[in-house]
Design a protein that fits this description.
Pfam families: TauE
Subcellular location: Cell membrane; Membrane
Number of helices: 10
Distance between the termini: 26 Å
Strand order of the largest sheet: 1-2
Helix content: over 70%
InterPro entries: TM_pro_TauE-like, TSUP/Inactive_protease-like
Mean pLDDT: 76
Transmembrane segments: 12-38, 83-104, 110-131, 169-197, 203-226, 269-287
Keywords: Cell membrane, Membrane, Transmembrane, Transmembrane helix
Number of strands: 4
Length: 303
């Protein structure tokens, strides 16, 4: 059944979009990630323009993050003070990122920048996850003690120190502000919540307890993704509501199935498998960068 996407100016099989949403939702539930960094490349693979894929995907990020925050809040695993500081940087970063998005689009370079960002960040994060997952499995087999995740460094000597009682931290507020700003810029350009970068940064740079990280990250992502969606719709008119709704329906169903299966697998294996998946998507994007298009030139015909 073909459905027309008005903003993407493309006709796509509705069941393909529902299935794609279901697959990404399944992977999100299986691996415990938002899935935005997988959904956007997949939309590009089926022909959705990158500018529309990036802007529309933010809607799915909001929906999944809201449900996740409520679950973690009920368990007491959300540091709202840290979340508000991250959010301050995230709002500023996402606003700057949408402005940069508009500038690159006017220059005709936004598609290239989106693909390059995915190749660089997905390749790096995927490789690190594969390495960390492999090391964790090897340590478990040798029954070695896990290495310390967080050590004091020059970051803890920065000014404007603030006490985050929920996370048992006393650090400079400049660090989470800077992290939030960087993730906000990436959210606007890549169409992701930024959790695949924010979560490791909160663990390794801020030293937050792992139990607090995911809920606090999702709290910040809700508002940053909402800001990105609003600005993209207002400034660039690239949010396709029809596409967003079809993907959302599939994602909700797939996430429920993935969550049940993921609870039966070991964390080390999940990390390794997710790393392999991320590297595979990155490799496809990398190959596409050097593959000549079928039509070298295209002509726009005014209506």
């Amino acid at each position: 059944m073909q459905v027309y996407l008005p903003i993407a100016e493309l006709s796509v099989d509705a069941f393909l979009l529902l299935g794609l949403g279901g697959i990404i939702g399944f992977l999100s539930g299986l691996f415990g990630v938002g899935g935005g960094f997988l959904m956007t490349p997949m939309l590009i693979f089926i022909g959705v323009p990158p500018v529309v894929a990036v802007a529309t995907q933010a809607n799915n990020v909001i929906a999944s993050s809201v449900s996740g925050v409520f679950a973690h809040w009920r368990r007491g695993n959300v540091d709202f003070k840290m979340g508000w500081v991250l959010l301050g940087g995230g709002f500023a970063g996402s606003t700057v990122g949408v402005g940069l998005f508009s500038l690159l689009r006017s220059l005709g370079q936004i598609d290239l920048v989106i693909n390059l960002c995915y190749v660089i960040f997905l390749g790096t994060i995927g490789a690190l996850m594969m390495i960390e997952g492999t090391r964790a499995m090897m340590r478990r087999r040798r029954k070695a003690a896990p290495r310390k995740l967080h050590q004091h460094s020059w970051i803890h000597g920065l000014p404007l120190k603030t006490r985050f009682r929920k996370s048992r931290l006393y650090i400079s507020a400049l660090v989470p502000l800077a992290i939030g700003f960087g993730v906000g810029v990436l959210s606007a350009i890549m169409g992701v919540g930024g959790g695949f970068i924010l979560v490791p940064a909160m663990i390794y740079l801020l030293g937050m307890p792992t139990a607090m990280v995911i809920g606090t990250s999702l709290f910040q992502i809700i508002f940053v993704a909402a800001n990105v969606t609003f600005l993209q719709a207002a400034q660039n008119q690239t949010v396709d509501v029809v596409l967003a709704m079809l993907l959302l329906v599939g994602s909700v169903v797939g996430a429920q199935i993935g969550t049940r299966i993921g609870s039966r697998l070991q964390g080390d294996w999940l990390r390794l498998l997710l790393g392999i998946l991320v590297v595979a998507v990155c490799s496809k994007l990398f190959v596409d960068l050097f593959t000549p298009p079928v039509d070298i030139y295209s002509l726009g015909v005014p209506l």
